[in-house]
Amino acid sequence: MKLALTTLMATTVLAGAVSAQELNLYSSRHYETDERLYSDFTDATGITINRIEGNADELIARMEAEGVNSPADVFLTADTSRLQRAADAGLLQPVESEVLEARIPSNLQDDENQWFGFSQRARIIFYNPEIVDTPPATYADLADPAYQGLVCIRSSTNTYNQTLLASIIEHEGEEAATDWAEGVVANFARAPQGGDTDQLRGLVSGECGIAVSNGYYFARAVRREVEGVSDSLDMISWVFPNQGGRGVHMNLSGGGVAAHAPNRDAAVAFLEYLASDQAQEYFSAGNDEFPVVEGVELAPSVAYLGAFETDDVNLSDVADNIPTAQEIFNTVGWP
Question: CA-CA distances (angstroms) from residue 113 to 12, 22, 231?
Fold first, then answer.
């Protein structure tokens, strides 16, 4: 596998374009399993990764404060909203890479090549079949009055929800998106609280009949013990929304090269490494995510969810709608 990685990055690493022996990574990915991503890159290239980890918004603020003196080479984070926020703040720079263009689908990268998606998360509708006989088949159905008092979902400040609503704006327009958000609020089983795993726990406890969560939180509970979920998997069923229509909304984990990267060549080499089969397989096996590169094998925990149609909307266009999405959330009183 190391040979395949070296071949992929030959133009940037073996040809001598990368002279730096270190890379400064600002990352909001907080998964211990990512350690192997970093060590494998170092083993293949000899480039040491220095990590600054923290909340995405904190890292963005830090890069803004550091300005042209920022040591950041790569910004890595979850969800389109944070990637676009960094781009809009002038913290990223365009990258021209034949490797990235060939391997990353065009709808999963910024139109100006300032950020690229490297793994995907499916926003799925889960439900407790003992409470709900006929689950929602689409995202629109979550606003159906038939589900009043049944829906559990995270707060409006959650990036996954912001991007989901931004995608609805892109597909259906602001008026329809506002009606949807208002209908979902009317169907809340409880005030939004906790993370996606807490929404799944709500199904097990019976507090929720329907929950919206990224699929990898459930897949993680299949792969290893997750308190309050793993021992009750038979109480949780799921629906892939909008099949036969636009497909399941997919949000991203991705990254870009920092605007003032002191080790730019190393930064580009790292992004290209994240698009390699080796790294793509590990996103799935290590963190139960979907690869962005077609044909990469899924981890058993991810494959357990089954096959489904995905929304191929351009996420760069979706990102433009995120400020409007937050305004809609505020208007309809979604906490």
Answer: 18, 23, 43
